[in-house]
Amino acid sequence: MTNQIERHKYDILVIGAGGAGLRAAVEAREAGLRVAIICKSLFGKAHTVMAEGGAAASMGNVNDNDNWMVHFRDTMRGGKFLNHYRMAELHAKEAPDRIWELEMWGALFDRTKEGKISQRNFGGHEYPRLAHVGDRTGLELIRTMQQRIVALQQKDKAETGNAESNIKVFAELTITEILKEGGKVSGAYGYWRENGAEVLFEAPAVVLATGGVGKTFKITSNSWEGTGDGHALALKAGANLVDMEFLQFHPTGMVWPPSVRGILVTESVRGEGGVLTNTDGERFMFKYIPDVFKDKYADNEAEADRWYEDQDNNRRPPELLPRDEVARAINSEVKAGRGTEHGGVFLDVSKRIPAEVIKKRLPSMWHQFYELAGVDITKEAMEVGPTCHYVMGGIEVDPDTAAAVGVPGLYAAGECAGGMHGSNRLGGNSLTDLLVFGRRAGMGAAEYVKSAGSNPVSEAAISAAAAKIQAPFTRTGGENPYKLHQELQEITHNLVGIIRTKKELDEAIVKIADIRKRISNVTVTGNREFNPGFHLSFDLDNMLLIAESTAKSAVVREESRGGHTRDDFPAMSPAWRQKNNISSFNGTEVAVKQQPLPVLPKELFDLFDPHELEKYMSPEEMAKGGSN
Amino acid sequence: MARKLNLRIWRGNRETGALQNVTVEANEGEVVLDVIHRVQAEQLNDLAVRWNCKAGKCGSCSMEINGKPRLACMTQVASFPEDEEITITPLRAFPVIKDLVTDVSFNYKKAMEIPAFEPPVGMKPGEPRMAQMDVERSQEFRKCIECFLCQDTCHVIRDHEENKESFAGPRFFIRIAELDMHPLDILRNRKKKAQEEHGLGMCNITKCCTEVCPEHIRITDNAIIPMKERVVDEKYDPIRWLGSKIRKREGIL
Ligand SMILES: Cc1cc2nc3c(=O)[nH]c(=O)nc-3n(C[C@H](O)[C@H](O)[C@H](O)COP(=O)(O)OP(=O)(O)OC[C@H]3O[C@@H](n4cnc5c(N)ncnc54)[C@H](O)[C@@H]3O)c2cc1C
Ligand code: SF4
Ligand code: SF4
Ligand code: FES
After folding, report:
1. Identity of the residue in B13, B57, B135 whose CB atom sits nearest the CB atom of A529
2. Structural class in CATH, domain B105-246
């Protein structure tokens, strides 16, 4: 059997064709290595395509006070100082180069009057910082990189006669397992979605760039691909996940009609001047400015309105607070009975901005509401509410090389990697995260392969991987994977959602364990040909691991911070700020232990006003003033 | 308000297939993709359909609904009369893989044939200055989500497999136009090549492609016609051709 399967040999496998994966592949190819890119959907359709608002980089094109240090400070603040400082530092320093490089590959960003790349305001960013193309920035990013890869293939064709000689895209192929020999990565195993046929990839290095986990939740802005595959593949291969309790609920998802519930309403709507009100007509965000942000956000409408004209002399409108704050505020308004009948609040741009400007600056939002909800946002308010959007937690990596801790040959970048965003990601920081760390992962993997050489896969490993793929077809009388998925989504939504308590989290852990027992019995109807039920049975296994890791991390973290809010522990705890939750997997269950967070070195510590740091750090930490 | 919906869904593979009648519930505000998913979860677990974003942004869920090329995630169930049967079939211009999923590799092959973007030699990252007005023309074409509905509807290849070899199709005419109008691209003869190598001459400006484009890209008016006109110009007037390339270069500064 095993000698009949399709086999491929590469230097590096990149799993994922979103922004992070494609950037990694370009880098590895340019380092002279043979690269395979593998993705679950067609080339160019990865989730990155949906990113709207923009990519944060301190180019200083609109306000020249901006620089990497300001960006670094904003990122740490947004993450409530739980970020891995080194990742935030590398990101802030390298983001501008990564954006400029896209332009040399054909990207066309919107321009300033001087002809530079225009930059827009976004929540948590002190200056206008997001490079953008209307509200379809992700599409521009992915298409540019897709076309860059085609350009490299054309070059190879000219030289070798075969466009796919050095870089090949395997689209609509799902990886089910990372293979290891002697403790090191040796390849990966998976199946073609089209016909279920199995495929073996041999390669000494694998870059995981598989994106997010949103489909674990009931209301999400993520597509079907967001099933946490990379997170789960890494856990199963012996790597760790860091801080999986931190999930970003984007404050503004669509709430009506039901079929579009969760679809994102970009933050640019607020960046361009959108205002949030409850059913009493009150602009409620003024009530929700936390103490740590009092000196940066306007506490009255007049000042907030002036800010759009004069940013140097006014504080920002509270609609632009970091996402976790806005999401919680909306949640509270709805709970207090001031929400719409569909459980949302109102978001309005029509009163402040002329119709033609709205259509020009927010074209796809206009389109989305007009076509899907029958609402004309140039005339009426939108109804919005929180939606599960982004996972801050992810694979534990070395910041400089993106190497996954504990598994030689494994790398991770993009949304599936952890640490960069701490407890809460700022809008726009993901797209540049993909580029900065995608490139570093490609580089890191290339260096590793050059020194480590190949690592052949054993027949035993192949048979074991093949047996797992066959399993759902050989069982009979088990449960339907769609039903189990719905059940899991109910559990995460009700018990591991925006506001959490110990009692509910304990209950979730028990229920998740129960589903895990039942999933080993899942049966699939039909055959292997493009069979979504079969596909879901694998995704489900991954989502269960994500849910388990999230719930177990959430129950131990006894504080509220960023994307983790505990009703029973409503305040931030300086002691918990110094700890990461590390998840590992022993083959049957996830275990969570604490590990000290790397300490800010003195030169980065000194970039902050001590009065600000005091709000987060203990007196002992303040006295030390950084690690060295 | 839920309603009962009668669907006829094409089921089959590369060799054979037929329409299958299904009755399914549809709720207020739902799109065709929603009801396909309900059929998949409740009745036909192995029904094959492509989708990703469910928000009209990725171009995956292309299919034919009552014979019209559409995105299933942007087609409201309510747009059909209460008692109408809805027929859902795969894209006709491409070979079926299974049910509603087709083999669109033709398009990726064509993408490979179009010479890549080429910036001026020696230009450094961060240097380009371009006016908004000058980038907007190409930006219109870069809105393309590669749903390939325009390719599917174009009569040159819809029922003419034999034309596929020499015809890139509207999606790639706008790609060529985008590069041709790109203020930083210095590669010459893009329009001429469109005519001679990519089959622009086979297009007889029926505008069907523009009509189906979910991104409302004015494929014919803004890309195909200007390229055809200028190809004609350039064939007769070499001086003007040179002028247009020089103007394009000036855009760089
Ligand atoms: C609606 C929306 C709007 C957003 N807007 C912004 C924004 O304006 N600015 C910003 O900075 N961020 C934004 N984000 C966040 C950002 O888009 C994502 O975090 C980012 O695109 C993730 O990119 P990625 O490269 O990590 O993975 P993705 O783009 O998610 O790609 C994952 C890839 O991995 C593949 N894959 C997954 N599992 C497997 C497997 N088992 N086998 C093979 N392949 C696999 C998938 O097929 C896919 O190709 C937005 C997110 C959403 C949902
Ligand atoms: S206008 Fe040309 S490209 Fe468009 S559908 Fe008609 S023939 Fe095809
Ligand atoms: S041009 Fe329009 S119809 Fe054609 S592929 Fe692009 S988005 Fe689709
Ligand atoms: S699912 Fe993305 S366009 Fe329809």
Report:
1. B13
2. mainly alpha
| B245 vs A532: which has the higher pLDDT | A532
Flag whether pLDDT at B72 surpasses 60: yes
Nearest-by-CA chain B residue for A141? B142
> Rounded mean pLDDT of B109-138?
96
The pTM (predicted TM-score) of the whole model is 0.93
Q: Which amino acid is at A322?
A: P
SS (H, E, C) chain B: CCEEEEEEEEEEECCCEEEEEEEEEECCCCEHHHHHHHHHHHCCCCCCCCCCCCCCCCCCCEEEECCEEEEHHHCEHHHCCCCCCEEEECCCCCCEEECCEECCHHHHHHHHHCCCCCCCCCCCCCCCCCCHHHHHHHHHHHCCCCCCHHHHHCHHHHCCHHHHHHCCCHHHHHHHHHHHHCCCCCCCCHHHHHHHCCCHHHCCCCCHHHHHCCCCCCHHHHHHHHHHHHHHHHHHCHHHHHHHHHHHHHCCC
Residue nearest to atom 3 of ligand 2 (CA): B170
The closest CB to that of A49, out of B34, B57, B125, belongs to: B57
Binned at pLDDT 50, 70 and 90, residue B46 comes out as confident
What are the structure tokens assigned to B185, written together? 């691209």
Q: Is the Cβ–Cβ distance between A505 and A554 less than 8 Å?
A: yes
User: What is the enclosing helix (H) or strand (E) of A481?
Assistant: helix A481-495
A365 near A263, Cβ under 8 Å? no
- The DSSP output letter for A218 is S
Residue A501: count of CB within 10 angstroms of its CB: 16
- The strand pair at A590-596 and A579-585 is best described as antiparallel
Hey, which residues of A are catalytic here?
A: 250, 270
Q: Are A102 and A117 in contact (CB under 8 A)?
A: no
DSSP line for A221-264: S--TT-S-HHHHHHHHTT--EE-TT-EEEEEEEE-SSGGGTT-B
Whose structure tokens read 């003419």? Answer: B160
Instruction: List Cβ neighbours of B80 (8 Å cut-off, separation of 6 or more).
Output: B66, B86
Return the CATH number of the domain spanning residue range A6-246+392-460: 3.50.50.60
- Taking the domain B3-101, which CATH number applies? 3.10.20.30
Q: What is the pLDDT of residue B234?
A: 58
pLDDT in tens, B173-192: 999 999 999 999 999 889 99
- pLDDT value at A628 more than 70: no
Residue to substitute in A98, A210, A546 for testing ligand 1 pocket (most ligand atoms within 8 angstroms of CB): A210
ipTM: 0.91
Rounded mean pLDDT of chain B?
A: 90
CATH number for A472-582: choose from 3.60.15.10, 3.40.50.720, 2.60.120.260, 1.20.58.100: 1.20.58.100
